[in-house]
Amino acid sequence: MWLAPVQAVIIPITEKQEKYAKKVAKSFSEKNLRVEVDDRSETMQAKIRDAQLQKVPYMLIVGKREEEKKQVSVRLRNNKDLGAKKFDQVILKINEMRLTKSLQLW
Question: How far apart are CA 41 and CA 67, in angstroms?
């Protein structure tokens, strides 16, 4: 994970969540994590598939529910779905994995 060019991709479900996705991305960048927002006009499934093909370790899905609760839904590149988690906790966990150069994803 710590070697990946992009450590996480944030995928908004609709255009309405793009602002929240960029806010989450900014928080990740402040911790020196390499993150991108996939705001293309593709379907969510296409964005997830593309991230998996690019071997991005974490896919963070944001929708209306996640925005309201200040959360992100976490998916790993191996297609494991960890569900919704507070985005502050996700940042801390991913940053810890990066700093310790862990081989585990979660």
Answer: 19
Tokens of 40: 């293309």
- pTM beyond 0.85: the answer is yes
Burial of 48 (0-12, 13-18, 19+ CB in 10 A): buried
| Domain map (residue ranges) of the chain | 8-99
Profile the chain (106 residues) by mean pLDDT over runs of 10 residues.
91 94 95 94 93 94 95 92 93 91 83
d(CA 63, CA 103): 29
8-99: CATH topology is Rossmann fold (3.40.50)
